[in-house]
Amino acid sequence: MTEVAFEVPEIVLRNLADRTYEKRRIAAVELEVIVKSLCAAGEQENVTTIIDLLAKEYTQYPQSNFRKAALIGLTSITFGLAGEAARHLDQIIPPILNSFLDQDIQVRYYACEALYNIAKIVRGEIVVFFNQIFNVLCKITADSDTGVQNASHLLDGLIKDIVTETDQFCIEDFIPLLRERMNVLNPLVRRFLVGWIIVLDGVPDIDLLGFLPDFLDGLFNMLSDSNLEIRQQADSAVCEFLQEIKNSPNVDYGRMAETLVQMADSSDGFTRLTAITWIDEFVKLGGEQLAPYYADILSAVLPCIADKEEKIRVVARETNEEIRSVYADSSCAFDVGSVLTVAGRLLSSEWEATRIEVLHWMSTLFNRYYDEVIMFLSEIFESLLSVLSDPSDEVVLLALDVHTCIARDPLCFHNLVFYLINNFRVYSSLLEARGALIIRRLCILLTAERIYKEFAAILEKESDLNFASIMVQALNLILLTSSELADTRTLLRQSLVNPSGKDLFISLYSSWCHSPVSIVSLCLLAQAYQHASSVIHSLGEEEINVKFLVQLDKLILILETPIFAYLRFQLLEPAQYPWLLKSLYGLLMLLPQQSSAFKTLRNRLKSVPLQTHISQLNEGVGMCQDTENTHIGIDFRSKLLLFQQMQEQRRIKVKTQVKQRLKK
């Protein structure tokens, strides 16, 4: 042990480390008197020597009594120094702070007491050690001993008072430490941190709001703490900050927006609600300043539109409309590509409401910024196509609206139809459940002629003959029955007299050859009755199977609908339309007599005044025998040959499949 001259008698040093409180108290008073006398004599070097003795030697002793003696002694020295204490704080404070980490509970308690007493003396001078003090307080506030915890709370309160009254506190130096500690999960530490945030935010000379982006995420994380008191404290702080933001002209919305986007995805409902509420206020306050962040903001808002909490859904929808109103201002600059990337990703959301709103956004962007959007089309086109298989009808219809915007580009239009055909091939249930919905909607949005011509052009080259037949049957049924295609049917009825009708008829014919009943119905619709009769008579026994008869049944029923009223009226003039009668009788001959379709068609033909005009009918057939082989540019003879070739391909394929099955 280093000897110190008369200034510190041995008995004083020994009593400082004594086990009894009274001896320690007396020794502390004596040491204070000694230091006062040294200061009065101007012997600061001797004071420094005493401090070094306690700070460097006593604090290192294995016996805890000596370590406690160091803390008691340093406190007494500070009392003795009084107004001169500030010049020695660099020696006094560090060993006390180290004692906060001592393994002995009593040493940690004495450290709290020592720092508390010293801080009362030096007040604002201790602020230069604030970060170190805050660091040890952050740890000791969660001490295992309640006595130490209580002592730390008293010290914490005093340090808060000192910070609020001094002008020496440096917020810039403190923020990195605060940010680091905000990730701690211990509830006691969290309560300590929130307490400091609230205190510092209340100091007029400290601009804590300017540093809010640095610790906002930690504060939001506390909103979901299991401890009610911490949640309430954090919520109080968050509400106060939001109010300050509303009243502040200069706010860094961008950095905080990034945090809020993350928090809006929290598993905790209250955190999500608070985050989306902040985002809503930011959009209202920030306006165009937030334009660079709208893509990220939408990535948070759109999922919240489908949140299980109604309050969150309401705020999310309001925010979404606020953003849309900003987008409506053409002077607002924003990143179209980023928004589309987010939209493309959210198209696969599990929530229907989110997918619906994403499609509304895509439609908005396409309508307003087509040239920019089309540049990023490759990034979202696959997602847009896949959503056509969505289980929601509303989603599918909205997706078709978006595709309508894209279809201004011919290649995109072709890819859309090609994708649909491929999907119908892979997912047969999709064609059954959604085929009519999709095709009818496209016909409304893009004109039926364009849609049907594109489908026909692709199906004409289809190698899967069975699928091609099914697809043509579906298209044909829609053509014959849907109200949306009434104008198209009218155009086809004029195929023999109208160039546009002829063009459409020719465009459909090749692919319609995949289905005998479909080609017959197309001819009946186009009033190409002689050709219809030729097709019917060319059918071989392979074509007249169960599937054929089922389709024929449907056609007979459709012939009885208002759509074919014109055809039924033509039956009243058998001499003028002999091939119509011949076609219908041909169909009648193909139907089994016991079927309801046979009875329906037979009854219809019975009402035709055929017997009284039999001679005129025979004469009409003879006169028209060759007139339809070529009519306004339609080579019906080659068309019939094309149909027969297609049927031959089907026969060959069926035979091949039978042989393959037999080999197995």
Descriptive notes:
The protein has about 675 residues and is mainly α. Among the domains are: about 1-170, Leucine-rich Repeat Variant; about 515-664, no CATH class. Helix content is about 70%, strand content about 0%. It is built from 35 helices and two strands. It has a two-stranded antiparallel sheet. Helix 5 packs antiparallel against helix 6 (about 105-120), helix 17 runs antiparallel to helix 18 (about 350-370) and helix 18 (about 350-370) runs parallel beside helix 21 (about 395-405). The longest helix is centred in the last third of the chain and has 28 residues, at about 635-664. The chain starts with 9 loop residues before the first helix and ends with a helix. It is found in: Endomembrane system.
List its traits.
single chain; 664 residues; mainly alpha; Leucine-rich Repeat Variant; two-stranded antiparallel ribbon; 35 helices; 72% helix; rod-shaped; disordered N terminus
The helix/strand class is: mainly alpha
**Average of per-residue pLDDT values:** 90
Strand portion: under 5%
Unreliable sequence segments: 1-6, 622-627
Query: What gap, in angstroms, lies between the N and C termini?
Result: 102 Å
Question: Might you state the CATH topology name of the domain at 1-168?
Answer: Leucine-rich Repeat Variant
Quaternary structure: single chain
Strand order of the largest sheet: 1-2
What would CATH call the homologous superfamily of the domain at 1-168?
Leucine-rich Repeat Variant
Shape: rod-shaped
Number of helices: 35
Specify the helix fraction band: over 70%
CATH class of the domain at 1-168: Mainly Alpha
Number of strands: 2
CATH architecture annotation name of the domain at 1-168: Alpha Horseshoe
Radius of gyration, in angstroms, nearest whole number? 45 Å
Query: What can be said about the biggest beta sheet?
Result: 2 strands, antiparallel
Main location: membrane
Protein name: VAC14-like protein
Keywords: Membrane, Repeat
InterPro entries: ARM-like, ARM-type_fold, HEAT_type_2, Vac14, VAC14_Fig4p-bd
